């Protein structure tokens, strides 16, 4: 039978070439793999797109964070600069106040120094003036006493009497006067002796070195000067000493 079929078929091929349509043959397994790969590609594409979107979003977030940080830094920078200016202003103000206070204190110190110098100069002039006033007063007193003794010679006798009271306890008393006053004092000798005891001796001498109204006595104890000039010098000395004590107190 196979020979028969073979023969028949060979015969047909010889007679005419029959056209047999090519039937598309689909492999179910192949199709499934293709579909699966396609789906994987789509999934990968979606994932990649999602990653890209996430990356862009992250990038945008980072950029915004950077911008925010930049703005914050600008604000902080402005705040720090303002604080620095304020601090510098306060430091300058404080320095200015301190400098002004020091200048003010220096001015007060200099003013006080000037006042103290003026006061010292004033006291020096006053002291000098006081000495001058005392010297003038003594000179005036000397002239007044001299004038008074010229007008009233008996006052010379009062000076000698006062002097004898100081030496009345001594046995021998010597009185020295100016030659111009000798006669007058001698004329008053008896009156003067009344101030002494009978045992005491009174002697009268002239001394041309004395001023007309000066006199002194000598005893065994020593010499006592009763001249007007000496008394005025003692008065001047005491006045100057008291002025010195008043200034130092």
UniProtKB/TrEMBL annotation:
Keyword Amino-acid biosynthesis recorded: no
Q: Which residues form the Flagellar assembly protein FliH/Type III secretion system HrpE domain?
A: 110-235
Judging by the UniProt lineage, the source's domain of life is Bacteria
Record keywords, A-Z: Bacterial flagellum biogenesis, Bacterial flagellum protein export, Cell projection, Cilium, Flagellum, Protein transport, Transport
Keyword Protein transport among UniProt keywords: yes
NCBIfam families referenced in this protein's UniProt entry, alphabetically = FliH_bacil (TIGR03825)
Q: Name the job this protein performs.
A: Needed for flagellar regrowth and assembly.
Q: Which family does it belong to?
A: Belongs to the FliH family.
Q: Which protein, by its recorded name, is this?
A: Flagellar assembly protein FliH
Q: Which organism is it from?
A: Metabacillus flavus
């Amino acid at each position: 039978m196979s020979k028969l079929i073979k023969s028949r078929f060979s015969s047909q091929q010889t007679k005419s070439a029959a056209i047999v349509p090519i039937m598309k043959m689909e492999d179910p397994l192949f199709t499934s793999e293709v579909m699966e790969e396609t789906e994987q590609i789509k999934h990968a594409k979606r994932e990649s797109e999602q990653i890209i979107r996430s990356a862009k979003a992250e990038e945008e977030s980072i950029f915004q964070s950077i911008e925010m940080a930049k703005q914050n830094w600008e604000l902080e920078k402005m705040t720090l600069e303002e604080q620095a200016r304020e601090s510098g202003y306060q430091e300058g103000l404080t320095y200015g106040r301190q400098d002004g206070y020091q200048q003010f204190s220096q001015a007060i110190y200099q003013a006080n120094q000037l006042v103290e110098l003026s006061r010292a100069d004033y006291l020096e002039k006053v002291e000098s003036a006081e000495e001058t006033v005392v010297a003038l007063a003594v000179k005036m007193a000397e002239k007044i006493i001299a004038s008074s003794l010229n007008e009233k010679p008996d006052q010379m006798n009062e000076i000698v009497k006062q002097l004898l009271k100081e030496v009345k306890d001594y046995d021998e008393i010597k009185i020295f006067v100016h030659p111009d006053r000798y006669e007058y004092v001698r004329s008053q000798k008896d009156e003067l002796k009344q101030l002494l005891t009978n045992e005491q001796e009174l002697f009268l001498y002239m001394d041309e070195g004395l001023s007309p109204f000066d006199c002194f006595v000598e005893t065994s104890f020593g010499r006592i000067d009763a001249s007007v000039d000496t008394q005025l010098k003692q008065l001047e000395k005491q006045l100057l000493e008291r002025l010195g004590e008043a200034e130092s107190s």
